[in-house]
Amino acid sequence: LEMSSLSEKDILVLRLDLTDRSSHEAATNSVLKHFGKIDVLVNNGGRSQRSLFVDTNLDVYSAIMELNYLGTISLTKHVLNHMIQRKKGKIVTVSSVMGIMGAPLASGYCASKHALQGFFNSLRTELTDYPEISIINICPGPVQSKIIQNVFTENLAKSIENSGDQSHKMPTDRCVRLTLVSTANDLKEAWISDNPYLAVCYLWQYAPTWAWWLMNRMGKRRIQNFKSGV
């Protein structure tokens, strides 16, 4: 194992609640006080959803947007103010392939990721005077993580009962490595996914009519599995 050259002063861990937007300025200032600058912000907080819209309380949709969307842009706002002063920085946002396509059982999650895509693609156009500030959207497909254990369901009080097998998903370290490569190369958008999910992304982008046909077929089976507890 290679020994790290990092010392205690090179590491600062702060607890952060994305939904507590009033705390984000103080958190940003704590980081600046400790390190003197912020080179990279990685927006990687959020929760997914697994429920049918007709069964889902609107409070769930509000909570998803509050966390995944508003929490992310709130933190971004404070960090961006600093990056604009320095005229330099990278803002990396972990969106999802669900920011590109639609899928059953995740209408609220898809909506929040579409919102992030729209927001950051628009923000990029407002920063043309700052060529060294990069806005980077990362769109992973299925990745091994605890996201399924923590999904929103049809109401805020209910948690998921069966999180299913994760062995078919991309290993976490591979997704992290490809995210770092994308960040280092200032890619505006990166789709990080294995097939068949990657192929479906291309369909949604370039042949949406075929994508809708395919998703209707796949979605029907997915909803049947969901209703029978698979």
UniProtKB/TrEMBL annotation:
Keyword Oxidoreductase: yes
GO molecular function: oxidoreductase activity
Regions that span the bilayer: none
Keyword terms, alphabetized: Oxidoreductase
Residue ranges of coiled coil: none
Pfam families for this protein: adh_short (PF00106)
Family: Belongs to the short-chain dehydrogenases/reductases (SDR) family.
PANTHER family: DEHYDROGENASE/REDUCTASE SDR FAMILY MEMBER 7-RELATED (PTHR44269), DEHYDROGENASE_REDUCTASE SDR FAMILY MEMBER 7 (PTHR44269:SF1)
Protein name: DHRS7 reductase
Gene designation per UniProt: Dhrs7
